[in-house]
Amino acid sequence: MLTEGQRQGSGRDGQGGAKRHKRFEVLEKRDVNKDGFVKEWPEVGLIAMGSPEDPEPSIKIENGVIVEMDGKARDDFDFNEIFIANHTIDATVAEEMMAIDAVQIARMIVDINVPRAEVLKVFTGLTPAKIAAVMDQMNVVEMMMGLQKMRARRTPAIQGHVTNIQDNPVLMAADAGEAGLYGFSELETTVAVTRYAPFNALALLVGGQTGRGGILTQDALEEATELQLGMRGLTTYAETVSVYGTEGVFVDGDDTPWSKSFLASGYASRGLKMRFTSGTGSEVQMASAEGKSMLYLEIKCVMIAKGAGVQGLQNGSISCIAVPGGVPGGIRAVIAENLVTTCMDMEVASGNDQSFSHSPYRRTAKTLLQMLPGTDFIFSGYSTVPNYDNMFAGSNFDCDDNDDYLIISRDMKVDGGLVPAAEEDLIAVRNKAARALQAVFAELGLPRITDEEIEAATYAHGSEDMPDRDKVQDTKAATAMMERGVTGLDVVKALAKRGFRDVATNVLEIQKQRVSGDYLHTSAILDPEFNVVAAVNDLNDYEGPGTGYRLQGERWQQIADIRQALGPDDI
Amino acid sequence: MSDNVGATPVGATPVIDGNEPAEETTRVAEEMELREVGEAERGSAPDEVVIAISPAFGDQLKRQTLTGIPHAAIMRELLAGIEEEGIKARVIRVWRTSDLAFIGHDGTKLSGSGIAISIQSRGTTLIHQRDLVPLNNLELFPQAPNLDLPTYRTIARNAARYAKGDHPTPVSQWNDPMSRPKWQAISSVYHIRETGFVKKGAKPVELEVTIKEPDAASHAAEGAR
């Protein structure tokens, strides 16, 4: 026991403050204390789950029409609620499903004896408040069990960010090539300068198909530009179509659930894979949460995505991650939103894609929630480049974490979507990707890529190692390239003419996918032979030990055989 | 932690990072008076830039940004930056919204040149131009914690140069991947509190600004330059 005198400290420090406990002085210098934390403020919705303002679940149906939902009469519905009542909830089963206790539904999610399909059926008839009540019954381990069973595709995968602060296309192609060898299934880029967008799409396409045939690529931009690049065959998927849980935020963006649905069909009808984006915290960040909890509002977003008919959703807070990250139980709400997405039978690209903490412990602990059970895309943007080059304002993991991530996979015998790659192979693929882009630029009459740039990109850590390009000339040429109507087929011809026949074949195969459209199925990725791997032919069949996806065989050997491990002959 | 924000010296971070905050070598303006002088009219002078401030900027809450920069000091730099390009500055307050893009867009409609700077209490800023859609802009400075006084002055100079019909080089920005973990949650609280001052449907008002110079007034400006 401390005496009063000891507690006060016998003296004051030089600044006149109370005498400090030296351990606290050390603690305060730790990374975790550079993060920002806030107290719950439920009245404005600064609360992860279970706000006093969240409604109680209820449903009333008359003549097949939902006339009351979660304590609100149909006449009082906002447009999100109208959309959900009309397009998401199956009124023919809703009364039956709403009658099941929340805790019972939570148990069905966890119970290995209840097949995935049965849980999906229950979720077709639940209201937003009921789903929130189900999630509130579950702890994070149960939610992880849920993700393992409920995700759509049996084989987990990973998406990577490929960007750089200079929008240097040579570096971008090399980085995309490297990402292919590491096993990424989707690559996403965006721009520092908007006018570079066509070059970024081109660099990602050529570099990606050099690294690994069948990798899907995206250029996150203003929606109309993004659609145009996709229609030209320069990208293959999109995910930056955002939805929100309150009318206020939607209206601020001049949008509605109907306009977003229209846009979604614009992509799909042109053979482009697409998913929506949402996430906890966006509404409260825009001071428009109406006192509702972050998860309750996010559940509405998930249901809007389902009602719009898109095959998947990127969620897990995404760019608002430090908002749930700053309140109690926030990271639990983030895995809950991923789980709800899977329970609505959609692909989930489950976040982990934005810098969220200074602390490597917090960063890792958060990611384990998605990595250990596996999701359709554990990261919706693992930074394949150093975070200083990450134009999404930094990811939760970056290329400097590759060995940590791979060794955690090896420790746990868990497929995190990445596989080790040899240094000499990575150097070779970076060089080839950069040269392939050099050839395409030359054939298409775009500004010259020098051998010096190729050499720099081959060995670069990031844009700091690259010589400067003439950006005025580049952006003018990028604009002209769009005006000229350059398409993916021009890229194929250029590659073939300059001797990159294998890359040309891959880029052509990607164009064919847009015609066949098979990769529009739920949770589709392409294997290196361009076979679609989706929830149709690779449906998650997890029903407990001995079932579902198992990391084994050649793939496990690849992950187990790390370069750092010594063998008996090395000693 | 949010309690500490108010007590932070300018330019230092309130987060404990093991480094002692740098000694304050210059003093900056910490106070200003904002007097409402009626509904803001559309200006006709082609050589004016409007500074459109958010509902709580300058005289509510702690009168400083997320990182503790006094609003008065920022206003001083904005006015000075515009004036040193030979352009006139007009200050208005937008009451109907706390959304940066819409504050700026409202400002452009009142600006004789069609150029406006908008700024929120937390420090987030943009340069807007009439005829652009609200969610577009000329230059956006989304990471308020990375903005210091000299940057605000440069932003103001650029706005003035747009008003003159020039094509200035955009103000260079720095991408801090750790800005989100440090600031996002606190910034949300800040924005919610500011939004509490919104008056739905109210018209923008013209403001008369008097900046109370600190004791070592001229030194502050020198330091900022």
Keywords:
heterodimer; A: 571 residues; alpha/beta; Annexin V, domain 1; 4-stranded parallel beta sheet; 44% helix; globular; disordered N terminus; B: 225 residues; Rossmann fold; 7-stranded mixed beta sheet; 6 helices
Poorly predicted parts of chain B: 1-25, 217-225
| Secondary structural class of chain B | alpha/beta
Residue runs with pLDDT of under 50 for 5 or more positions of chain A: 1-13
Helix content of chain B: 25-40%
Q: Tell me, briefly, the overall form of chain A.
A: globular
Number of strands of chain B: 7
What's the assembly state of these chains? heterodimer
Rg of chain B, nearest Å: 16 Å
Number of domains of chain B: 1
Provide a short characterization of the protein structure.
The complex is a heterodimer of chains A (571) and B (225). Chain A is built from 24 helices and 13 strands.
Topology:
The complex is a heterodimer of chains A (571) and B (225).
Chain A: H1 4-8, H2 22-27, E1 59-62, E2 65-69, E3 72-73, H3 79-87, H4 94-98, H5 102-110, H6 116-123, H7 128-136, H8 140-150, E4 159-161, H9 169-182, E5 186-189, H10 197-211, E6 216-219, H11 223-231, E7 237-242, H12 247-252, H13 257-268, E8 273-277, H14 282-285, H15 294-308, E9 312-314, H16 330-343, E10 347-349, H17 360-371, E11 380-383, H18 402-412, H19 423-443, H20 451-459, H21 471-483, H22 488-497, H23 501-516, E12 525-526, E13 532-533, H24 553-560
Parallel strand pairs in A: 4-5, 4-11, 5-6, 7-8, 8-9, 9-10
Antiparallel strand pairs in A: 1-2, 2-3, 12-13
Helix pairs in contact in A: 3-15, 5-7, 7-15, 8-16, 9-10, 9-19, 9-20, 10-19, 10-23, 15-16, 19-20, 19-22, 22-23
Chain B: H1 2-5, E1 31-39, E2 48-53, H2 71-83, E3 88-93, H3 100-110, E4 115-119, E5 125-129, E6 139-141, H4 149-163, H5 179-195, E7 205-212, H6 217-224
Parallel strand pairs in B: 2-3, 2-4
Antiparallel strand pairs in B: 1-7, 3-7, 4-5, 5-6
Helix pairs in contact in B: 2-4
